[in-house]
Design a protein that fits this description.
Residues 36-84 form the GATA-type domain. The protein has ten helices and 18 strands. Helix content is 29%, strand content 20%. It is α/β, with parallel strands linked by helices and 434 residues long. The protein binds zinc ion (ZN). Residues 37, 39-40, 42, 58, 60-61, 67 line the site of zinc ion.
Length: 434
């Protein structure tokens, strides 16, 4: 029965455990009174979701295995909570502002949202609270809507807590479920947990596909124990999220980057023909000229609003460079991880990409160009996140952020405004600290 420990599994009535065990929680998978699926929270229609056998099913979470009204959700709760020694080997030092946030997390025992600028070092700040909860015998989940973010978080957490048997779970992850006190997983995977975590840390809470996805929200709400606690991490909280949580959550703002330098403010460049620049040499000239200028100091990430567009511009631009200097990567690319690593290793000078690299990834010494920053795919958050890729790590290297546009948009205006405001706030903090 240990396969049920600490998560929830759907099983048919005939396989329900017969032993009397207080730790076992058994719930009907579909609540016929409320018409709600208990795994994903979606309301099902008794008319439309009726099977020939007379059972109902949930059409919303079939990707996790079809759930019918004949089934039950079974989970075995933890019964023994034991205090223990938890080894944290992270050797770095938190900056005073980071330390202040980390201390508040240890003291306030409240749901908290950490609103920290890109490159503030959010992960390091959560190490002490993870250690505290684990030491008290609790169970911790660290989750993010994006697989790339989970993959990047896992090795850092594993390294900091080497004695924990940390589990990494995502759709196609190599390891399958096993009970663990420390779990890193995508928010999608939370659908398999019921009242499991004492502390649930949601990184990049504002990232697609969590934002506006009621299923994932339901999964997040079901995954923590009744007296469990949330920590949300974000660099770009939507106004709506702030309004929603501000009564229950403490909000910790951290406007200063780890290295204490300000965020790079985007430079707006008018580019009339950005959308068709690959068709004519003289339209492409503006991009080539700027690339060469930026390349004197840094490698360049060029963000494109769609994969089709990216491929065309990439094909046109690579003719101006030596073989292998320019590459492109998108979500459809099977060599995605290898290419991102090659960019980190400085194998490429220019990497064309889509919004997949908008967040959660760190490159040293890059500048950024956004082709068509006025395109609707770029929300304010996306623009702030992409700008935040520059000057995250290492010594200052004159990284620049260029927005190419042929129309001014609200998102562009608000993104620039937010970046400037954060820099202003950071300046005040630094003054106060002196
Ligand atoms: Zn469902």
């Amino acid at each position: 029965m240990n396969e049920w420990l600490g998560r929830q599994v759907a099983i048919p009535k005939s396989e329900l455990p017969t032993v009397d065990d207080d730790a076992m929680v058994v719930r009907e998978a579909l609540d016929l009174k409320t018409g709600q699926c208990q795994r994903c929270g979606t309301l099902f229609s008794k008319k439309e979701q009726l099977l020939p056998s007379g059972k109902y099913y949930c059409g919303a979470c079939v990707q996790f295995g079809r759930l019918t009204s004949e089934e039950f959700l079974v989970s075995k709760q933890e019964t023994t909570i034991q205090k223990r020694e938890v080894l944290l080997t992270w050797q770095g030092k938190l900056t005073p502002p980071q330390q202040a946030v980390a201390d508040h997390l240890l003291e306030n025992q409240q749901h908290t949202m950490i609103w920290a600028v890109t490159g503030a070092g959010k992960t390091e700040m959560i190490f002490p609270i993870i250690q505290q909860v684990l030491s008290l015998g609790g169970r911790v989940g660290v989750t993010s809507p994006r697989i790339d973010v989970c993959r990047e978080l896992f090795p850092r957490i594993h390294q900091a807590f080497p004695k924990e048997k940390t589990l990494l779970l995502y759709g196609a992850s190599e390891e399958k479920y096993r009970y663990s006190k420390l779990t890193v997983c995508t928010t999608h995977q939370l659908i398999h947990f019921y009242q499991a975590f004492d502390l649930l840390i949601v990184d990049e809470i504002d990232a697609f596909p969590y934002e506006g996805n009621p299923q994932l929200r339901f999964a997040v709400s079901q995954a923590i124990k009744p007296n469990g606690r949330y920590i949300y991490l974000t660099a770009t909280p939507p106004q709506q999220l702030i309004a929603e949580i501000q009564e229950e959550f403490a909000i910790e703002q951290l406007p200063i980057r780890y290295h204490q330098r300000p965020l790079i403010v985007p430079e707006l460049h008018w580019y009339e023909h950005w959308a068709s620049c690959y068709q004519r040499k003289w339209h492409l000239r503006k991009l080539i000229r700027l690339l060469n200028e930026l390349l004197k100091a840094n490698a360049v990430l060029v963000f494109c609003p769609s994969i089709a567009y990216m491929k065309k511009v990439y094909a046109a631009v690579k003719q101006y460079f030596a073989t292998g200097e320019v590459a492109c990567v998108s979500s459809q690319d099977e060599h995605r991880e290898a290419k991102v690593q090659a960019m980190r290793d400085k194998s490429y000078r220019v990497l064309f990409t889509t919004t997949i690299l908008e967040r959660g990834v760190t490159f040293e010494h890059v500048s950024v160009i956004i082709m068509g920053a006025n395109h609707p795919v770029y929300t304010k958050s996306a623009l702030v996140q992409i700008s935040g890729r520059v000057d995250r790590k290492g010594a200052f290297n004159h990284g620049r952020v260029i927005f190419f546009l042929n129309q001014q948009t609200v998102a562009i205006r608000k993104a620039c405004q937010e970046i400037k405001e954060m820099n202003h706030l950071a300046k005040r903090w630094r003054k106060d600290a002196l």
